[in-house]
Structures are given as C-alpha cells and as structure tokens.
Amino acid sequence: MPATRHLPNPESEDLIALTREIASKELAPHVTDAERTGTFPREVFATLGRAGLLTLPYPEEFGGGGQPYEIYLQVLEEIGAAWASVGVGVSVHALSCFPLFAYGSDEQRAEWLPGMLSGEKLGAYCLSEAHAGSDPAAMRAKAVRDGGSYVLNGAKAWTTHGGKADFYTVMARTSGEKTRGISCFHVPAGTPGLEFDEPEDKMGLMGSTTATVRLVDARVPAANLIGSEGQGLSIALAGLDSGRLGIAAVATGLAQGALDTAVAYAKDREAFGKPIIDHQGLAFVLADMAAAVESSRATYLSAARLRDAGRPYGREASIAKLIATDGAMKVTTDAVQVLGGAGYTRDFPAERFMREAKVMQIFEGTNQIQRLVISRHLAR
C-alpha cells in the first residue's frame, strides 16, 4: 500500500517509481537476513549510488541529483519504508557531505565531491563523544597544527558507518574556546591513527554499523581543514537541521511500513467470524496510525519547502523530527499490538520496526533537545 504523493512533475514521479522498484528488488529481499546477522549492506549503497539516489539534493555539476529537498526526502522515505538501516545510512552520508559542499574551497570540492556524490565513496559524520552528545561544544577531541598538517587525537562515539566508511567528517577542538574553538576536517579512511572499536551491540538497526572512532596521532594535511579554524561548531549545527529532516523522512517511512504490515495482517486475520479490521476497536487503532503517518509526512514536507525556498527552517526541522519520530514509536508499537502474539515474534517484521523506531527519538538530537530548540525559537 504505497504512500499517496502529490509530486510536482513527471521527473519526480519517475524518481519515486525508480526508488520503489529498487526498494522492492534490491532492498526488501535482503533486509531480514541482514538485520538478523548484523551484516552491513555496502553493496546496497553502491547500487543506490549508481542509480543516482544516494546524494540527490546536491548539484549535478559535482555528481549529485540536483533535486529539491521536498523530492529528496520523499525518496528517502521510500528507502526507509523498505529498510530503515539503509535510509539512515543515506541520510548520514548526505550529512557527511554537507560541510564540504557548503563550506569547502573550490579546490576541495573539485577534488573530493565527485567521488562522494557518485556513490563511489560512503561517508561518516563524527560529532558526538561519549560525554558530549546533546552538548557538542563540550567535545574533547583535539586537532593540533604541526607544520603543514593537523594531528588529531580523541574518540568520536556513536558513529554511523564507523569502520565501514571511505571518509570521515570529523569535528575536533583546535583551541580552548568553547564554541569557537572547534574545527571541521576531512579524514580519509586508511589515515594512519584512524582506528575503530568493535561495533555497538544495539537494540535495532543491526544492518547499520555504529562504532566509536578513535584518533591516535592521526595526521591529515592542513588542506583537509574545511572552512576556517573555529568554524566547526557552526558548520555542524547548520548541517544538523538538514540531518533532522532526513531522520524525519526515514521515521515516516518506517511508520508507513509498520502501517502497511498491520493493515495487511488485519485484513487476513479473522476473529469472531470476520477480519479483525472490521472490528471497530482495532479499526480505530489503524485509523490513528494512518493519521500519524500522514501528519509526519506533511510536517517534514512543510519544513522541506521552506528550506527549498531559502527561508529559515530550523524550528520547523525540529518540529518535523519530533513529530515524525514520536509518531513512528507510537505507530510501530501499535503495529505489534495489532498483530498480537504474532507481532511479538520474529516471524513478522513488526517487532523489528518497533526496535528501530526507538533510536530515532534519540539521534540527530534527542527529542528533548528538539523541544528545547522549538521553545527557544518561540521565546525570541
């Protein structure tokens, strides 16, 4: 039961159709086994890259798709509906490309962006630390200038694609000043001193590798500094607004997948002589689930349209992330309830959807942080 979409032109309709075809043929057949075994689906990202779906919102001149965020996010939602781990990975990759695209020099963009945007290279975004998640200004990882290089030391926690990525966008402290002492670096995989802990043993999203990245006297050329010294925190915060919209879209897709599973089961399962969807008590649960999915979609699309128009959208991005991820948690929990005992087994994907939804209320800024951002906007 695919989502009903109002798309602006035939090109975007073809893009959604292509995404659904790839999701059906290349993602859906592998998701169950990969999630149960914790297998990282690197080839899937290569497939999305070859199809032009990995970095849609970036300009064509660098290898991107040149699509507005309104369209990119709907593609991302379709991917998330088929496989949340991959949807999160696409969003994180787009986020890891943002600093270079928005703040890099012409030389840096010409050298690195084509490979990053073609799908040839997969990125990771290194901002959080074990003691500095909601408060990134408290980070302790350091980068010290040494001649024509910077030497990086520290640990970056909860890194999506940690140990699997081809490049790492790393925020590290270059001075003791709290907010203006952080800088942004492009660190290629294979850099001596770039090390990785064992992947986290997580509750969900097992197909998405998450690991601590350790920097042990990791030396990168000074030319790998993105933007200027001390600009890193503002770069990171600017990117997070877009990243929050990405997670809102993935969460909406996850909720759509849970709704589809619940409706299909409710039509097939009978109780007291009729399909359980015909029992009002359960039908109303499904109706509330559908309303939550549609509300989430409308909210992230509203924020995306502001972004595409060049207008401020930070508050709206936080609202979208809050609504979509809280909604996904409720919808996936209700999906398990609709399936009853079957929903609690791994014979059906409902239990996986529920586990995957939880982390979406946490990463890209916890939903408590989203409420803080929203309330501060209201107080201005």
TrEMBL record:
<dbReference type="Pfam" id="PF02771">
    <property type="entry name" value="Acyl-CoA_dh_N"/>
</dbReference>
<feature type="domain" description="Acyl-CoA dehydrogenase/oxidase C-terminal">
    <location>
        <begin position="230"/>
        <end position="378"/>
    </location>
</feature>
<feature type="domain" description="Acyl-CoA dehydrogenase/oxidase N-terminal">
    <location>
        <begin position="10"/>
        <end position="120"/>
    </location>
</feature>
<dbReference type="InterPro" id="IPR009100">
    <property type="entry name" value="AcylCoA_DH/oxidase_NM_dom_sf"/>
</dbReference>
<comment type="similarity">
    <text>Belongs to the acyl-CoA dehydrogenase family.</text>
</comment>
<dbReference type="InterPro" id="IPR046373">
    <property type="entry name" value="Acyl-CoA_Oxase/DH_mid-dom_sf"/>
</dbReference>
<dbReference type="InterPro" id="IPR013786">
    <property type="entry name" value="AcylCoA_DH/ox_N"/>
</dbReference>
<dbReference type="InterPro" id="IPR037069">
    <property type="entry name" value="AcylCoA_DH/ox_N_sf"/>
</dbReference>
<dbReference type="InterPro" id="IPR009075">
    <property type="entry name" value="AcylCo_DH/oxidase_C"/>
</dbReference>
<keyword id="KW-0285">Flavoprotein</keyword>
<dbReference type="InterPro" id="IPR036250">
    <property type="entry name" value="AcylCo_DH-like_C"/>
</dbReference>
<keyword id="KW-0560">Oxidoreductase</keyword>
<protein>
    <submittedName>
        <fullName>Acyl-CoA dehydrogenase</fullName>
    </submittedName>
</protein>
<feature type="domain" description="Acyl-CoA oxidase/dehydrogenase middle">
    <location>
        <begin position="124"/>
        <end position="215"/>
    </location>
</feature>
<dbReference type="Pfam" id="PF02770">
    <property type="entry name" value="Acyl-CoA_dh_M"/>
</dbReference>
<dbReference type="GO" id="GO:0003995">
    <property type="term" value="F:acyl-CoA dehydrogenase activity"/>
</dbReference>
<dbReference type="InterPro" id="IPR006091">
    <property type="entry name" value="Acyl-CoA_Oxase/DH_mid-dom"/>
</dbReference>
<keyword id="KW-0274">FAD</keyword>
<dbReference type="Pfam" id="PF00441">
    <property type="entry name" value="Acyl-CoA_dh_1"/>
</dbReference>
<dbReference type="GO" id="GO:0050660">
    <property type="term" value="F:flavin adenine dinucleotide binding"/>
</dbReference>
<dbReference type="InterPro" id="IPR006089">
    <property type="entry name" value="Acyl-CoA_DH_CS"/>
</dbReference>
